[in-house]
Protein: Probable L-aspartate decarboxylase
Amino acid sequence: MQIEPQAFDRVLSSMCTEPHPVAREAAERFLATNPGDPGTYPTVSALEDEAIERLGEIAGLDEPAGYVASGGTEANVQAVRIARERADSSRPNVVMPESGHFSFRKAADVLGVELRIVPTDDRHRATVEAVRATVDDDTALVIGVAGTTEYGRVDPIPELGEIARSVDAMFHVDAAWGGFVLPFTDYEWHFGHAPVDTMSIDPHKMGQAAVPAGGLLVRSPELLDELAVDTPYLESTSQATLTGTRSGAGVASAVAAMDELWPAGYRRQYVRSQNNAEWLADALKKRGYAVVEPSLPLVAADVDRGTFEALRAKGWRLSRTAADELRIVCMPHVTRTMLASFVGDLDRLEVRASVPVASDD
Amino acid sequence: MQIEPQAFDRVLSSMCTEPHPVAREAAERFLATNPGDPGTYPTVSALEDEAIERLGEIAGLDEPAGYVASGGTEANVQAVRIARERADSSRPNVVMPESGHFSFRKAADVLGVELRIVPTDDRHRATVEAVRATVDDDTALVIGVAGTTEYGRVDPIPELGEIARSVDAMFHVDAAWGGFVLPFTDYEWHFGHAPVDTMSIDPHKMGQAAVPAGGLLVRSPELLDELAVDTPYLESTSQATLTGTRSGAGVASAVAAMDELWPAGYRRQYVRSQNNAEWLADALKKRGYAVVEPSLPLVAADVDRGTFEALRAKGWRLSRTAADELRIVCMPHVTRTMLASFVGDLDRLEVRASVPVASDD
Structure:
């Protein structure tokens, strides 16, 4: 089978990236292992414990529990599932801002819970008062996002945590994308900053591990016991997952990446990515686009759909927000040269659009 | 990070194996791709279509629909979810033989459906009359297993399918492990043999692909639409999954393996594995153990727990059935030499056990 995947040099809207070389090497070394079967594969199972330790360090949790999931979607679904199991109500609801990831809609559908979606403010962040007005005694879970999918925004995590506490609901922070850049900012987002119960934080996004390597962290191990099936307590953390067989490549690559890059390498990457995002935002503003200022390395701008499709026709891998803006995620593989090339193509399209086309009529 | 995984040369109870070299190479080539984002990764998304085509060919389905899942657990959970969505009853139940995989218990817990477990017969197969007596008008799904986890048994698939039809329930066949060996037997197990609606069939087990590569096949595309969230029809098959980001490595390795090995390579492997299982069964019977005759390449025998633990202490990766038998799965990496070495160690332990130990008292 001689097919090649496309290169990364035109991928601008993905929250995944090329795995770091040490992560790739670890993935290949552990390709034929299964942490879902700790008895057969004890080495990679021990590596998973180490991955959780390191994720806990990043997320401000001294005695972390959790596991390496297939991705942020599984982590988010499982967080909702834990909350459902602990809910007092027979009709539990989950409250989240509209910027919450699609995986929470999937979770509500799969798990049979009501999802209450609260509008964000004009800066695309959760509106604290609206969340406060939406929770009630049946609320099992409040969700805050630390690095939203469309705009890279950080919700007011401590305030949302207090609202959850006020109605005896759990509080989940989705830091699937943001978790590996936020440590280098002034945002309050993690277990040390707020009454967070569960968190998604994905090594295979900004963590530069290989797919699949998502992360579910929980404040204490008995929260994971809620995921046990048929028994009151987990016999093994690996039974808690939504899968059976799991990828040792993902687990090993997560440990290798964090071993190599935390904290200095991730800090350097954050600075580079944030600088790139700000450079791009400036470049687009100069050209007359309305730009959502990047709080994290993600830029949205009102580039019209015609230009957007023309850029895609040139090979750029792009996606748009629900409000129909262009959305660029400055992942580690995104270089200043790539962005300059992108802006150059944008300029050429704009020139072409403004030059009258000779008519054949 | 210089840790190495243990070698495969002592792994005897895993349903996973070393990926075939072409599968490993494809996995490495597509490591940094995500079929959960077809717009950004069109090449690997097209490969997934091809994987489903080939799985359909193996499973007797002319116009297959489905997707490459994280594993058999996700495929089984999603099959139950499809049945739940289509059920007329407000209290749907799922009927399965006790040999059904743990993932169906997980599915029932996650999805909030009742699971009715029917005892197997003395040959560890589903008891048709007991299943018939257990289904009722609330039954949404009947499950048959083609290659059970503990004994490698094949249920009477056509009869179970008829029972499902008789109560307007769906019929799911779990061929996660068996699907890549059954084509070379006389068993009736697939879409061409019975009114099968959905099937699990995992390339990363006997298919010799890299983890993660499970498979969910459905008889017609509208069954997948039941997995859509918020919309009546799927906009993209990739929305149907239980995950978000997915492993392109798994998808590419599945296509590469099937391209290389179907059908002749898989046939040769089945013959080799079945011969190994029968050799092992004979060797154990000669030594006085009660052996469950292998219908497929899986051997169970009443090796006592003390001997079992001593074998594990020698480095053999082994597991036991719920009835406390030793369970050996003759996967592609399991060679006659490995089995002979295993039996040799067993013999040495038996000798030691029968020689009186000089006492220190």
Observations:
- The CA atoms of residues 188 and 297 of chain A lie 17 Å apart.
- Chain A has two domains: 21-261, 264-352.
- The first strand of chain A starts at residue 65 and ends at 69.
